[in-house]
């Protein structure tokens, strides 16, 4: 899975909408959608903010291990 796909899966498992997560980290919903699709590069500060909000590690975004 790509980083964006992992973020989307973790977000969905957390019960958050794109809008809610984007608002919490200070970006727009379209920007989050682009990150999840892999068409926008994820910066380290944003990755840290997303991980904090999703209660996970940045490593979870790059891990190739399947999550349940």
Give the termini distance in whole angstroms.
13 Å
Strand content: under 5%
Number of strands: 0
CATH architecture: Orthogonal Bundle
Query: What would CATH call the homologous superfamily?
Result: lambda repressor-like DNA-binding domains
Question: Would you state the CATH class?
Answer: Mainly Alpha
Q: How many strands, which pairing sense, and closed or not: the largest β-sheet?
A: none
Number of helices: 5
Count of discrete structural domains? 1
> Mean pLDDT, rounded to whole units?
93
Task: Classify the fold: give the CATH topology.
Answer: 434 Repressor (Amino-terminal Domain)
Unreliable stretches (pLDDT < 50, length at least 5) are none
Question: Which keywords apply here?
Answer:
65% helix, 5 helices
Give your account of this protein's structure:
The protein has 68 residues and is an all-alpha fold. The protein has a single domain, classed as 434 Repressor (Amino-terminal Domain) (Orthogonal Bundle), CATH 1.10.260.40. Helix content is 65%, strand content 0%. The protein has helices at residues 3-13, 18-25, 29-37, 44-54, 58-62. α2 (18-25) packs across α3 (29-37). The longest helix is centred in the first third of the chain and has 11 residues, at 3-13. The two termini are 13 Å apart.
Produce the secondary structure layout:
Elements: H1 3-13, H2 18-25, H3 29-37, H4 44-54, H5 58-62
Helix pairs in contact: 1-3, 2-3
Give a nutshell description of this structure.
The protein is an all-alpha fold.
């Amino acid at each position: 899975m790509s980083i964006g796909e992992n973020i989307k899966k973790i977000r969905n498992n957390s019960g958050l909408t794109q809008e809610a997560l984007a608002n919490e980290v200070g970006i727009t919903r379209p920007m989050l959608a682009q990150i999840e699709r892999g068409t926008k590069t994820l910066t380290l500060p944003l990755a840290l903010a997303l991980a904090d909000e999703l209660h996970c590690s940045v490593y979870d975004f790059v891990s190739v291990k399947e999550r349940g």
